[in-house]
Each structure stands twice: as C-alpha cells, then as structure tokens.
Write a structure and sequence with these properties.
mainly beta, about 475 residues, five-stranded mixed beta sheet, 7 helices, globular, about 10% helix
C-alpha cells in the first residue's frame, strides 16, 4: 500500500467536495456534467464564483439556511508553506453546508445545465425524464427517486447517480429526496414542484412525496432547499402532492399502513426518513422475509433491521461481499442450503482504483500492520496478495495516532487498493470472520441489500483517535 499523506487526502477531498467531482462514473456521452454531449467547463465560470456558486448566492443560501460562517485565518501546509489544496479541503469541511447541483434529462437524452442549491430546475416548460443530484461540500449522502404512473417509483439512487431514464413520452410526476449521515444530522432537505398546468405545490420534506399522482399532469419545475435542523421553515408544507389521497405511511387503528396517492394499495419497499419497511397490500411485513433474493428481518413494527447480530449472533460462517463501486462492505450469513443470503451488517468503506475484483479466501490476520513507510493499520485481514481489509491510518502502532482525515473522508478519499473501514467495523471482521472466510469484490451501482451507511459525525482535525474504537479509553 502506498503512503497516503495528508496532501493526497486533501487533494482527494478537494476533488470530491469542492470541485463537485464524484467517484461514480458519468454517462459515456450524455449525462450529469454534460450539456448537449459536451463536458461543462468550470473554467468558464464567471469571476467571483466557487464551484459554480457566486459569493453573493452562497452567502444568501447560508443565511436562508440559518447558518453563519465566520472568517478563518490563513492556514499553513508542510514546513510552514501554505498548501492550497489542504486549505481548500479544510475550508470546505469547516463550512459544513451542502452544495446541491442537479441536472435533469430532457428530450432526446440530453441533460440540462447544472442548477445549484435554491434555484428552479426547469426545461422551458417541458417535462423531465431523469434526474441526477450531486451533494458536495459536506460529509453525507443525498438520495432521490422519481415516480411515473406507468412505472411506479424508480429505485433510490444517490450522490450523482442517474434515476431511471424514461422515454420522451414518459414524464416524471413526483419525486422524493432525503439526506443520510452527517448532513442529515445537520439539515433538513425541502423540495417543491411546478406542474405543466402552472400549479406550484407546497414543499415536501425529508423523503415525503412532492408532485402529482393519478392526475394526468407532470413536473416541469423542481426546486430544493436545505435548512438547519430546528430552524423554522417559512413556506407552505400542507399540500406538496396533488393527488386523490396522501401518498405514504399513515397510522390506521394503531397500525402502520401505506397507500399510494391514487388510493391504490401499495406493495414494495418504503421509507420513513431513513428507516426501511416492506409492505404487502398496504400492510407492513414482520419477522423473516425472503425479498429480492435476500432474507431480511423486520421487527414487530415492520421496521427492517440493518444489524442482525442480536438476531443471528456472531458464530458464522459468514461471507464478505464488497461493492467497490459504491464503497460498501456487507457481511452475509448462511441460510442453510439457500447459501449466504442473510445480510447481517453493512459497513462504509474506502476502496481504490487498484482494488481487485474477484473471489478469494482470507489467509491471515494481523493485530497491527505496517503498511509502508511508517503507516500503520489495526485489525488487518488479508484478502489476496498485498490487499487487506484494515482500519483507518495511524502514524504508529498506537490507537492514539490516527490521521483524522481518514475518518471524516471515508469512502471519499481513495485507498491504494486495500479495503479501509472504521476501527469498530474492521475489528468486527477481525474477531468474527475466521481464516478461510470467502471474500468477493465486485462492481455495482446498487450498494447492496442494505443502503450505504454514512459517517454520522465528523471529528475535529485535532482528534487523533477513532471514535468507534472500543479499545480507546475516553
């Protein structure tokens, strides 16, 4: 493993958070970041802009969201020399306010110009056939999906991925959006729509439905905004959906039910915030359920459990499934002759371009591992050759020497090929997945049977220990 310096971390963060780049590949010809088939050139931005946002617009967005950012003193890099990449990365983290950049698919498979933060996303009065939203400048995820009467809800996608791209004669009628991770702990996301008949809906919030269902109308405008938690929202929220009924979960006679906005019974996955449920004919399922090729467990209220250790224990055997494209690691338990189809846990990871694809069996483990040139990791499990599952990075074999940037930017900063996890997660692998455990590494735009986790709380630059490390005395 090559030495990952602070400068490299800062460079990766700057590329991912400040410049609006993402590790998810764009469409080959048309797609987010492209206009009429040509890449958008940020060098053409007008003076006084950062990442496409004017200083005045940025200050206005911050004020609207109830945030005040104080000026910071100039920082220095190695040997007292100002490291502009590191400073930009630190400034981006300290700002801690979202930058939402959205493009919409129009007719002929083209995409609109990017729309940033609190702006109407429009298409000259025409409908949309796909959406893509990047979240930058803060740690966490933005998730979103779209609805049409002919297809129902698309799968959830995140952080620049494209929703289902519909044909020119199929227009998006409704949308849902939500945050997860640190950004969700700091902000609520709101969104409103405009329909082709000129109607503007009220604002929906945190995964609720905005737009229309079963009315014959469709969306021609979308606007979103973020507001700090516990901040009063000044706009109407009573009727974000134009439909015969309220779309989503409600309580009837003490039991959760789910109805579509057109009053038809609902079957499928549903979310309340970031809690996940599965409904059959409006009723939530409970207990063990076989769905989409996996065996899930739902509690008595219908909520899906994403940590099954209290249910299945830690005895194993387990299979480790790593999605390189989405930076997730899922531990799968065995369901008898059905194979490894029980998702037990999922962990956020950092992989890199050199991470190999394939299937292997783990040959050895190391409590501490000197990776290269004095960079150490905890709880390292070898996968194949020089590739390991291991903790974040330390300057010595001492859990009080953490590089804090490797915690905050997990899944953003790339590894040199190994699978990097939080200390708590890699220790779970080290303790519970025996030598000889099968590890498979693959690529998919779908994170896995569970949604991708996110860092819930960032740590300060001065903190040199992993807050998830169970061996650190606090």
């Amino acid at each position: 493993m090559r030495k990952l310096t602070r400068r490299l971390v800062a460079f990766c963060l700057t590329a991912a958070l400040v410049s609006g780049q993402a590790s998810i590949a764009l469409a080959e010809e048309y797609g987010p970041g492209f206009k009429n088939g040509k890449p958008l050139d940020q060098a053409d931005q007008p003076a006084g802009t950062v990442g496409g946002i004017s200083t005045e617009d940025a200050e206005s967005a911050l004020a609207n969201a109830g945030i005040v950012i104080e000026k910071e003193a100039e920082g220095g890099g190695e040997d007292g020399v100002v490291d502009e990449a590191a400073k930009a990365a630190q400034d981006a983290l300290k700002a801690n306010f979202p930058r939402l950049q959205t493009t919409a698919m129009t007719g002929g498979g083209n995409w609109t110009q990017p729309f940033v933060n609190d702006a109407w996303i429009t298409n000259e009065g025409q409908g949309f056939h796909g959406l893509s939203t990047f979240l930058t400048n803060i740690v966490g995820n933005v998730l979103y999906r779209t609805y049409t009467s002919s297809t129902g809800w698309s799968p959830w996608v995140m952080n620049g991925q494209q929703t289902t791209n519909y044909p020119d004669d199929v227009n998006i009628e409704a949308v849902q959006m939500r945050f997860s991770g640190y950004v969700n702990n700091q902000f609520d996301i709101y969104y409103t729509t405009q329909l082709e008949d000129g109607t503007t809906t009220d604002w929906a919030k945190n995964g609720a439905t905005a737009g229309t269902m079963g009315s014959g109308h469709y969306i021609t405008g979308l606007r979103m905004a973020f507001f700090a938690k516990n901040t009063a929202f000044p706009y109407a929220t009573e009727k974000p959906l134009i439909a015969a009924d309220v779309d989503g979960m409600r309580e009837i006679d003490g039991q959760i039910r789910y109805f579509n906005g057109d009053k038809t019974p609902f079957t499928g996955w549903a979310w309340s915030g970031n809690e996940r449920y599965y409904f059959q004919d409006t009723y939530p399922v409970t207990g063990w359920q076989y769905i989409d090729g996996f065996k899930y467990y739902f509690d008595e209220s219908g909520k899906m459990l994403s940590d099954l250790e209290p249910i299945v224990g830690t005895k194993g055997p387990f299979l480790i499934s790593i999605n390189k494209e989405m930076n997730t690691l899922t531990v799968l338990g065995k369901d008898g002759d059905n194979g490894f189809i029980i998702p037990v846990k999922t962990f956020l990871a950092s992989t890199g371009p050199d991470t190999p694809l394939g299937t292997w069996k783990t040959p050895e483990k190391h409590r501490w591992r000197d990776m290269n040139h004095g960079i150490f990791t905890q709880y390292a499990t070898r996968i194949w050759k020089g590739f390991l599952i291991h903790s974040l990075l330390y300057s010595r074999p001492n859990n009080m020497t953490l590089d804090p940037s490797t915690y905050n930017f997990l899944s953003i900063a790339e590894s040199a090929g190994c699978i990097r996890l939080r200390t708590m997660d890699t220790k779970w692998i080290y303790d519970n997945c025996a030598i000889g455990t099968t590890v498979t590494i693959y690529n998919s735009p779908v994170p896995g049977p569970f949604e991708r986790p996110a860092i819930e709380q960032i740590i300060p630059e001065s903190q040199t220990w992993d807050p998830t490390d169970p061996t650190v005395a606090r």
